[in-house]
Amino acid sequence: MVDKLRIIKNFMEAGVSKMRVMLVDDHALFRTGMKNFLSGLRDMEIVGEADNGLEAIESWKKFKPDITILDIGLGKGMNGLEVARRIKKDDANARIIILTVSEDLVDIMEASQIGVEGYLIKKINPQEFLECINTIIKGETYVCKEIANQVFTGLHQIPGGIKRPYNLTKREIEVVELVVQGQTNLEIAHNLYISVSTVKKTMSGIMEKMGVHSRAEVAGRAISFMRGKNV
Predict the structure, then answer these.
(1) Structural domain that includes position 185
(2) Are 188 and 77 part of one and the same domain?
(3) Are residues 33 and 97 part of one domain?
(4) CB of 94 within 8 A of CB of 70?
(5) pLDDT digits (tens, 9 = 90+) for 154-182
(6) Residues 6 or more apart from 116 whose CB is under 8 A from it?
(7) pLDDT digits (tens, 9 = 90+) for 99-121
(8) Do 38 and 128 fall into the same domain?
């Protein structure tokens, strides 16, 4: 379980006394539910909300929130992924969490390519939502566990004799799985019973094989591979 005190500690370490949040969803009832949930966290403050893409961008420019929680399906006009793309173009350091019903690997891959920090599906429990917040505050990315499990169930079920993606070793696939889940090098080391230096060396090898330069790109390539397998 996520310790709320640990989240507060990460706020302080990030130089933030209160996390300013903007909600973007075209369902008023869902926004109300999220506001009620977040208002129960004393270190989070709702500074804005929107129900369509154009209003979302205008509100983001006005409030410049610390985190934008964004649905993909926004009815008419631009969807949430286009909103995220425009926000990231304006400020690459803007923190964005996609919170949606879509489990489509195409949407997940596009979100990763845009550079969003978190991708969650709406049926997650509150504890995992808090885990996502805690992860992105630390500067890491987070994909909800159900999606990560779908991706890596497919990766681990590659039949013998078939070439592994990017020639990754079994250990490298294990590390990529934990990266997709948003784990830090220290957490990966703890879970795999290896040293942090070994994790860093393994990550360097993974990035070189994939031809990428960031953890988010590693997750995106893994998801892209599974999309090609139609998992």
Answers:
(1) 147-228
(2) no
(3) yes
(4) no
(5) 555 554 544 567 888 888 988 988 887 77
(6) 70, 84, 88, 96, 97, 98, 141
(7) 999 888 778 878 888 889 999 99
(8) yes
Domains: count for the chain? 2
Let me know: does 103 contact 150? Beta carbons within 8 Å.
yes
Mean pLDDT, the chain, integer: 83
The residues, ordered by sequence, that sit 6+ positions from 192 with a Cβ below 8 Å of its Cβ are 171, 174, 175, 178, 199
116 & 59 share domain? yes
pLDDT-above-70 percentage for the chain: 83
pTM for the whole structure: 0.71
Q: Report whether 70 contacts 53 (CB < 8 A).
A: no
Q: Render the burial of 62-89: b for 16+ CB within 10 Å, e for the rest.
A: ebebbbbbbbbebeeeebbbbbbbbbee
Domain of residue 177, CATH code: 1.10.10.10
